[in-house]
Design a protein that fits this description.
- With about 1000 residues, this protein is an alpha/beta fold.
- It is about 40% helix and about 15% strand.
- The chain is built from 38 helices and 40 strands.
- The strands form nine sheets. Strands 33, 34, 35, 36, 37, 38 and 40 form a seven-stranded mixed β-sheet that branches.
- Helix 2 (about 65-85) crosses helix 8 (about 260-275), helix 12 (about 375-385) packs parallel to helix 13 (about 395-405) and helix 35 (about 950-960) packs across helix 36.
- The longest helix has 19 residues, at about 65-85.
- The chain is globular and about 100 Å long.
- The chain starts with 8 loop residues before the first helix and ends with a helix.
- Residues about 1-45, about 320-330 and about 600-605 have low confidence and may be disordered.
Length: about 1000
């Protein structure tokens, strides 16, 4: 369960291997994933052919309308093209026109559906070539229009002065470029304050709706985008009027990257023409873009439009940089200020830090500020460049690049270990024979991220200075993702050497005490300026001042310092502007380093071992414990997976008995060599199977490039839930995976408490006792607390007093401590006074609570529906009284709640069956299945996206007690994951019973239980 725990000029740069500024994670990070090989494959192995499953052709489509419909279109058209050509073609919908351009420019997409201006920019910037032009309404041309709300008083383009204007995207021809020219020609210059406000709405449909609702006075779209929303808003043509139309603009179409193979292009173009001639293909493209057919055209088709732009004085390159920023409403719920943080360490911890620091900033400034963790440094840079993020925590090189490329400005610099500067180092495995930089030739090298100063940029220059060209002289290059990951990759031997900041090894020393013995430092850099907090170029000065002051004040508090220490080890911040980095720029310049030249993408990923497997056609046996409605839902979900998964995997479900019975069945099947392929199991049960070397650790599956979870997926999963399946006794491996979780809580009767004169549930144990006493009435047969003996309840009692079940290493039971004795002594006093009693039958606590015999009960949130059913009046269907849940009373500063629940483990069978089992688990824990399982089984979803979905929010409104309980997650803690804990639970239960029945004192009962528990732990 939860864990306890990189001659002359080049010589100058040899001093510079910086720790990625702003990247020092906390000292005891969560275990980091095994890195994914990323760069040149072995010389003898040819890269996968383009158009194969290993290297599919990517079609990236622009978000001009409804994203869901465009995604549906992308999936359908690529399916048809794949069938027609025999090539593997995959489609996606990007977040913006600019994103498609960059994807094609960096080779991450091979085809695109760019609109006119976006295509011109992509052609000029990256040599992207037009192949097909769409025909819409019988013409390969279209027009743009400027629209206005009928009540805005706008009748001409000149009337838009002083109004709020809605745009689509800075690369949209009809939704941004052309209409801005039209405004300037009418004397309304959108770049010089002639407008009250400019809003980037994201799509043509969004612009129409924003004008329709009055959120914008006017907007720009293509002709006539109003028709896209007319079904849902029949009066849209009455409320949204057309003010002006543009001249003809060439249509959008299909484009290819510059180096795309000519034979494949010919094949795909012909297939596209053929597919568009079919009803199915035409329907797919009509759904997204209203294309009715396509015609072959090359780049010369757009020359007339280029001449028009030139005559209007429009410089395509100048318009590349996004210009729209919401100003007057920035910092509101509708337009929150976004802080994007870099993934330098443990993503979950940085996300936690982002949430905490933005909460504090919001409270301090009165502005709405939201935080996120990007997938890479480059992603933060692009997010700030495109105004999708307004603040960032960029490291040195990343900041210099962002400043040069997008005008991002430094505001605060971090102080770490008393200094606003840091150093970096190149490390190596002690057994690799590497003692100096030149020794790294022919070895495997681990990098952080292509925008990382210490983890990529400078160490590559250092290697070159030592005569090792990383692009030609290394056996392999690996992108590990973070500094922690680089250290662990070298520690495990996955890489021979790596580049990190000084001394990233300390971040994992608690978990791997011998890290400094196994990982040695080969070279160290001189001082480099630290990371800090930066703002986009046009960020309002007044808001910047407010946020900077608030950030400094927050960093002076214990809460704020803890938040930033958790993610980056910031101790404080100091105000510095861009000149702070001039010295480092001079050093880079002296060494002949061109920042822009070093901003390219990192090496492309290579396949990991799991990704090479093919699970097609596998049948896998799953043993579960579900019965009744739970089994119904489980079987329906399994049927859905069986009928929809792309590999033709078939999951065969089989009921294996309740948890104890199933564990015995699993152990017997392991002994016989006939285990199921995967099974439901608590984490300590999975550990017992691992002792028999029967369980497959899931880390490599989670981190598989092809079959694993993305950074976004991992950030979406609640860390407290996932970490309960990591086992310190087995190298902190992920021995199982959680589909859901429950929580041990206190159930209480609100109406009864109010009658007794209390307006809230007890927060201390003394208050609990007082309320139990007040509720007890011998004549009426009422009592304060109905006890259902449970080790999970005891864990809550113990933790709420500051005690622990085991020592941090998990090897010794210590629950006979003063806190444990205090817990059972308290319980005995309740029993002796007649204020508590032990239930006589299973679930008797639910019955007695519902019949108002007991004021309190402790139990699992999974039982909420049963409590609700028991409390329901049979005649009216309404609850007989108001009731809710709360954390256990506590003497600790904060409450502690026990989070537990069964997970799924995969047994060692065949690689293909193990992968097939994992793929079901992955699917079962995706958002939509997770929502359904959580609702039907009344468990907590493991994903934030699931919890925040409309379905789960509606469910929480229906079940307010569930919603209340979900709010207690921040106080969650998990029970031990040692194999012996299964039997220890019985010992704890026996100790509780012995005390309440007077057979032993609390100390005697717990001493005996601990003695037996330690014997089990020693086995």
């Amino acid at each position: 369960m939860k864990r306890q725990k990189v001659l002359a000029a080049l010589m100058v740069l040899a001093l510079l291997v910086p720790i990625l500024a702003g990247c020092a994670p906390k000292a005891t990070p969560a275990p980091t994933p095994k890195p994914k090989p990323t760069a040149p494959p072995p010389p003898t192995k040819a890269p996968p052919a383009l158009g194969t499953a290993e290297n599919p052709i990517i079609l990236s489509m622009v978000p001009s309308g409804d994203t869901a419909e465009i995604l549906q279109s992308a999936e359908e058209i690529t399916k048809l093209l794949s069938e027609k050509t025999g090539l593997v073609i995959e489609g996606n919908v990007a977040t913006s026109y600019a994103a498609v351009i960059e994807a094609m420019g960096t080779g991450k997409a091979h085809m695109g559906t760019l609109a006119t201006f976006a295509y011109l920019l992509a052609h000029e910037k990256y040599g992207v070539e037009c192949a097909l032009v769409s025909v819409r309404y019988g013409s390969p041309y279209y027009k743009g229009q400027i629209i206005a709300n009928v009540d805005s008083g706008i009748k001409t383009v000149a009337d838009i002065a002083g109004k709020t204007m809605c745009w689509v995207d800075a690369a949209s021809t009809s939704g941004y470029i052309v209409p801005r020219v039209m405004l300037k020609e009418a004397g309304v210059d959108p770049d010089t304050g002639a407008l009250k406000e400019q809003v980037e709405a994201g799509s043509h449909n969004n612009v129409v709706l924003a004008v329709y609702r009055g959120e914008c006075d006017a907007g720009a779209t293509y002709v006539d985008a109003r028709g896209n929303v007319a079904d849902e808003y029949p009066d849209v043509n009455d409320k949204v009027i057309v003010i002006a139309e543009s001249a003809e603009i060439p249509n959008d179409g299909l484009q290819f990257i510059k180096e795309f193979p000519a034979d494949m292009k010919t094949k795909i173009v012909q297939a596209f023409v053929d597919v568009m001639a079919t009803e199915e293909g035409a329907a797919a493209m009509k759904l997204s873009y209203q294309w009715s057919e396509v015609i072959e055209k090359d780049d010369t088709f757009y020359d007339g439009f280029r001449a028009t732009l030139n005559a209007a004085g429009v410089d395509i390159a100048e318009l590349e940089k996004p210009q729209v920023i919401p100003v007057t409403e920035l910092g509101t719920a509708e337009k929150p200020i976004v802080l994007s943080m870099v993934p330098s360490g443990d993503t979950a911890e940085i996300l936690q830090s982002a949430e905490e620091i933005t909460k504090l900033l919001s409270e301090k400034t009165g502005l709405v500020i939201e935080g996120n963790v990007a997938t890479s440094y480059a992603a933060v840079i692009e997010a700030m460049g495109t105004k999708k993020a307004h603040m960032g925590t960029l490291a040195t090189f990343a900041y210099l690049l962002a400043h040069e490329k997008y005008g991002v400005e430094c505001a605060l610099v971090s102080v770490r270990y008393g200094s606003p500067y840091y150093k970096g180092e190149i490390i190596a495995g002690v057994d690799t024979g590497i003692t100096k930089l030149a020794d790294i030739a022919g070895k495997t090298m681990c990098w952080v991220d292509a925008a990382s100063t210490s983890g990529y940029i400078v160490p590559r220059v250092m290697l070159k200075a030592a005569g090792v060209d990383p692009d030609t002289d290394l056996a392999q290059q690996v992108e590990a993702g973070s500094h922690n990951n680089v250290v662990l990759s070298v520690y495990r031997g996955d890489c021979d050497a790596g580049a990190v900041y000084v001394d990233a090894r300390g971040n994992v020393a608690d978990e791997y005490p011998d890290v400094n013995d196994k990982v040695i430092v080969i070279a160290e850099s001189a001082e480099i300026p630290n990371d800090g907090l930066q703002f986009i170029e046009d960020f309002p000065a007044d808001l910047k001042t407010r946020i900077v002051e608030a950030f400094k004040e927050i960093m002076a508090t214990e809460e704020g310092a803890a938040a930033m220490k958790l993610s980056y080890q910031w101790a404080e911040v100091i105000e510095k502007d861009d000149t702070f980095y001039d010295g480092f720029r001079a050093t880079l310049s002296a060494a002949g380093v061109d920042i822009a030249e070093l901003s390219g993408p990192p090496p492309a990923p290579a396949e990991d071992a799991i990704s090479k497997l093919d699970p097609s056609g596998q049948e896998v046996l799953y043993w579960h414990v579900s019965t009744k409605i739970h089994e119904e839902v489980l079987l329906e979900l399994i049927d859905e997976f069986n009928s929809t998964n792309e590999w033709g995997i078939t999951v065969l479900p089989e009921y294996g008995g309740y948890y104890g019975d199933l564990m015995q069945k699993n152990l017997a099947s392991i002994a016989a060599g006939t285990p199921p392929d995967f099974s439901i199991a608590y984490a300590n049960q999975a550990a017992a199977y691992a002792e028999a070397d029967a369980v497959e650790a899931l880390d490599d599956y989670v981190n598989s490039a092809k079959y694993g979870l993305s950074v976004e997926d991992l950030a979406d999963i609640y860390p407290a839930f996932l970490e309960t399946d990591r086992n310190p006794g087995f190298g902190n491996k992920l021995l199982s995976f959680p589909p859901s979780r429950s929580m041990e809580l206190m159930f209480y009767n609100i109406d009864w408490l109010n009658e007794l004169g209390y307006d809230k549930p007890p927060e201390t144990w003394d208050e609990f006792k007082d309320m139990c006493m007040a509720a007890t009435d011998t004549e009426a047969g009422t009592s304060g607390y109905a006890l259902s003996v449970s080790a999970s309840t005891f864990a809550g009692w113990l933790w709420s007093r500051g005690g622990e079940l085991l020592t941090p290493d998990g090897k010794t039971a210590i629950f006979n401590s003063a806190e444990g004795v205090e817990a059972l002594t308290f319980l005995k006093e309740l029993f002796d006074g007649g204020y508590a009693y032990q239930i006589a039958e299973r679930y008797g606590d639910q019955t007695d609570f519902a019949n108002e015999v007991a004021l309190f009960a402790f139990g699992s949130t999974a039982g909420l529906p049963y409590y609700a059913q028991a409390v329901e009046d049979e005649e009216t269907g309404e609850p007989k009284f108001k009731w809710s849940v709360a954390p256990m009373p506590h003497s600790t500063v904060d409450p502690v709640v026990d989070i537990y629940g069964p997970s799924i483990c995969v047994f060692k069978t065949t690689p293909e069956k193990q992968l097939a089992s994992w793929l079901f688990i992955r699917w079962f824990t995706e958002k939509d299945p997770n929502v359904r399982w959580a609702q039907e089984a009344n468990y907590f979803p493991i994903r934030r996206s699931a919890a925040e979905s409309a379905e789960m929010q509606a469910y929480m409104e229906k079940w307010p007690q569930y919603k209340t309980a979900f709010g207690f997650l921040e106080w969650g803690k998990g029970e031990p994951v040692v194999p012996a804990y299964q039997d220890m639970r019985g010992l704890i239960g026996d100790a509780i019973t012995a005390v309440v029945t007077g057979m032993a004192t609390p100390q005697e009962a717990l001493d005996f239980a601990v003695e037996e528990a330690n014997a089990l732990l020693a086995e």
